[in-house]
Specification:
Distance between the termini: 14 Å
Radius of gyration: 14 Å
Number of helices: 0
Structural class: mainly beta
Shape: elongated
Largest sheet: 6 strands, mixed
Length: about 100
């Protein structure tokens, strides 16, 4: 495992996102739908089942990659999506740089 890089074909990479309203963390513990969206450099988007990092009160959602998730080098986009009784929300979009292997 590389110390600070994600590589093509990596399995077990944890992608963690935090839901915020301005600077404040949002309690997402009531979410009934929890997804992490991965968009590869070619623009293809996959929706993956997310899980809470703790219990959701900290606003944190994660996804751990499996085989074939990371199949292209370049800049990926990741975003969280939740649905709760109060509405639907998206996290900020984050860049995830994926490096080629030698």
């Amino acid at each position: 495992m590389a110390a600070n890089e994600v590589h093509v074909s990596d399995v077990g990479t944890v992608i963690e996102l935090t839901f915020k309203d301005a600077a404040s963390v949002v309690d997402i513990s009531g979410a009934t739908t929890k997804e992490v969206w991965l968009s590869d450099p070619s623009g293809n988007t996959a929706k993956k089942a997310g899980t809470f990092v703790t219990d959701g009160t900290d606003g944190k959602l994660k996804y751990t990659t499996v085989a074939l998730d990371i199949d292209e080098a370049g800049t990926w986009k990741v975003q969280g999506y939740i649905v709760s009784a109060g509405g639907t929300w998206h996290s900020d979009v984050k860049d995830l740089e994926v490096y080629a292997n030698i």
